[in-house]
Design goal:
The complex is a heterodimer. Chain A is an alpha/beta fold. Chain A has helices spanning 73-80, 103-110, 129-139, 145-155, 171-184, 201-218, 229-233; strands spanning 29-42, 45-58, 62-67, 88-93, 96-97, 114-117, 189-193, 221-225, 237-242, 245-251. Chain B folds into four domains: 33-93 and 281-444, no CATH class; 114-245, no CATH class; 445-531 and 722-860, no CATH class; 538-717, no CATH class. The chains are: A alpha/beta, B alpha+beta. Chains A and B meet through α1, α2, α3 and α4 of A and α1, α2, α8 and α9 of B.
Chain lengths: 252, 860
Amino acid sequence: MTPPDSAQFPPRQGDSDPLRAGIRGESYAAVVARGLSQRVPTADGSLAILSEVELAVQAGETLAITGASGSGKSTLLGLLAGLDQPSAGEIVLLGERLGELDEDARARLRAGRIGFVFQSFQLLPALSALENILLPLELTGRADARERAAHWLDRVGLAARAGHTPRQLSGGEQQRVAIARAFATDPEIVFADEPTGNLDADTGARIIELLFELNASAGTTLILVTHDDALAGRCQRRLHLVAGRAHEAVPA
Amino acid sequence: MSILRKGRGAAAGLRQDRPKGECQAAYPLRAHPPAHLSRVLRLGLWLLRRERSSGEWRVLLLALLIGVGSVSTTGFLGDRIKRAMSEQGAGFLGADLVVTSPRPIESWPAHALRTSRALEFASMASRGDAFQLATVRAVDAAYPLRGVVRIAERPFEPGSPRPAQPPPGSVYVDQELLALLDAGVGDAVQIGEAQFAIAGVVAEEPGQLGGVFGLAPRVFLRADEVEKTRVLQPGSRLTYLYQFAGEPEETSAFAAALKPVLDNTQRLVGSREGVETLRGAFANADRYLQLTALISLLLSVAAIAIAAHRHALRHYDQAALLRCLGATTTQLRMLYAVQLLTLGLLGSFAGVAIGALMQQALAGLILPDAATRLPALGPAPVGAAVASGLLALAGASLPALLRLVRVPPLRVLRRDLPPLPVGASLSAAVTGSALLGLVAWYAGDATLVAVFVGALAALAGVLALLARLALLVGGAVQRMAHGPLRFGLAQLLRHRFDSTLQLGAFTLALFLVALLALVRSDLVAGWREQLPPDAPNYFLVNIAPHQQEAVAAYLAQHRLQASALYPMVRGRLVSKNGTPIAETLPEASRDSNTLRRELNLTWTTALPANNVVLAGQWHGERRAAEISVESGMAERLGLAVGDELGFQVGDQTLAARITSVRSVKWDSMQPNFFVIFAPGQLDALPASSIASVHVPPDATGVLPGFVKTFPGITLLALDKLIANIEAVFAQIIGAIQLLLGFLLAAGMAVVVATLLASLDARRQEAVLLRTLGAQRAYLARGLWSEFLALGLLAGLLASACAEIAMALIGDRLFELPVRPHPWLWLVLPAAGALLVGMSGWLTTRHITRVPPMQSLRELA
């Protein structure tokens, strides 16, 4: 599973444990988007969802993508994470030009290096809390998968609920499991799509705390979509979308 | 915690060692070790295990279980019934295989079969002044290997089963011989130079009814006492009979090895040819069993396909999440494939176990005497059942699986995104070839495969069209209806695609069950018709010309119904249009029995009852060198109207032109002939006549008197043959009824799978409606009207399809007359409404009971 153009990159050194970006002042762009547009065909011709978005997120940065409903936030997130392909423009994710990768190569790129937190949690209903965290670890073939999963469940304060299925957990608890799942593989980027969208204000606030605390201690790049100002305010930068155009990128 | 901290430290350490500026533009490489295949497989099994309680796999497993269960029960039972039937045939023959030869055969292909040897020759038997030519069969202690020989103390007694080998110094003889020699049991009879005591009367022997008319009466002698008679001289006409019995596989292997070794004076007869009369019944039963196995399999394939579709639908989210987490399509494919394989093996083996248990119980019920002798199930049928389960599962669920693998990862953000379509031709090819493979495997017979595949393809098209039409009609009804009925019908119409699918599936299930039920009752009725209660039960053979009038008078006096008298001359077919007949045939058909043995030739002016002229014109009163030939013989030997055939009768040669080809009902118990001459051709030849007669059970007392009055006439009892045929029919009918039960279960599986497939959508709607204020009773009545309407429609469509199909296959496949089935049009819609209504209600009833809040949470 070597990346297609690995020759251009420095060879891996020592053991396989990854090199981490953004440490000791060296700065890498975790995600770069140039001239990003997304159009979808509709009955009345094609509709522009995103137009000419330019973006660069450095490794270790936190970025909030904000905007009204339908402004293209989630579409942008999906494109940046390599879940979809843009109509025009270019994305470089973790040093790879996504346009040059096929679907499977993009999946390989995501494996273990990118974590996700969703508005609707996306936990598998048949699996327990612990097993849901275990899933990406098993998929990436970690030898210490079980210990890691238990460790992360403990970090989000749910060690006592390891055997419970999502149905037996509250919304807040489910989202904590999802956050643990996102960080469990020690990813370089975590994408979060409206992580507090399905939660009440109090629970949402606690989830934000947890997310940022874990993010700070892991030094992960965090890109989140939200229309919650409080949440956006916690990020270093903010990209505001209006009708598919990136209007401002203000430092928080 | 410590793991992570350590990991990060090591990472930082490595970063320090790296020369600066080396990868300004690029991003530092980091990849996890690849997920090995074994890991993906483990993950698949793990997910499968975790989901077993979620019930999503249960439908699939259940469908597979029913499918393989019914296929293996059908297969195992069918196998056993076939064996039981071939045992019956063997009983008629006295063995599974018989080789006859004019010379002893010293070397045989290697085999582990039981054997028996007999020697048959003609010899005079005498007592005092009376003498009579007898057919002596010198047998060993093992004779007969199959079937029974019954020996009675007095003529016309049923006797008791005994070995055919008489005690030393004695013989068993036919009752006619007693009459002809005016002897009784205990008297002595001279054969050649030796005297033997008559130790009993042969009441029944295998092979008695194999169409061997005109043979001299039977004498059973010990093989080790042949020497004593000194009748065997060099040049004597002898027949060596070698009999074999054993496992079907072994006997057929032995027969295959034997065929090339035999020369054209030697003949190999299998148990299937034990008696011509049973041939039609064998063929029909065989076909029927094949058909049933095939249909229950197809129904379970349909159930599996529907269940697999639902399973895929419910796993789109899972697949999308896995892809989002970095699983490649190959990994997903492996993951779902291993799940499917595990499930397939599990379901297939469990199904085989069910099949084995069922057939054990049922074989004992249907074939009490055969079940004890039948060997355990071999690995072959088990392997076949498991393989067909896997093939069915793969064929039915691969299209759904392929779709599952093509779920876009973006679905994690936008749940409405459907998977990318899989090429329709690809899915069709996958399912189609799997189905075709299964059909070919089970049907074996090319006609059956062609008829079935064609019929199913046509059926699918017609059903889709009819279902659409029916729904249109439903729409008209709906506009006139009100209340829950209106709601129920509206539901039906709203989900037009689902409804078409469900209607199609129900119709298919009902149609196939109805079809088999019809074929069954028509088969049974057909057989009953072929064997009317006053069917002749005795043949009178060897009636001399001068006895004809006296015999007719005797029968009339005792009010016995007899067929016409047919004069009989034995002759051999030697040429066609001046060419030796063998040369006109392809190599493979040259050893046809019709050529080897002497034919019974007759002449008559009236076309015999049960004969139908298929080509040409019946000669009637015309006194010309014309003949009528039986259609099967014409087909085997490539004969047609206009051909001139040459016959060798004694030392004379006769030529005659074929002017008609007739079909003959061989199982009509009437004297039947391959070749019938026009009058005036054979009259000059010495001939004896044959007739059949029906002797009612209360009139058997007439028989000893008849034998005494006409000592030269052979009386051949057909009672036992008829009883045996009826026993075989009873077994077949029992088996068929049972297999229909399984078919019904498979049909129900389709119905339940279809309903379960629509359960999620239904639940969602029900919850919504209840939230909006619909009462439970209203919803329940709505569901009932929907299912009743669906079942009713399906029943009507199925009736129409069944009638058409019966008209087509009854005629072609089973040679049964076409007849309408009015009751079908009542029973099927009623059964459909009831079945679909019940199973629909049972499957969906809880959706009206779940509190809306709980459902809304689950659906969220």
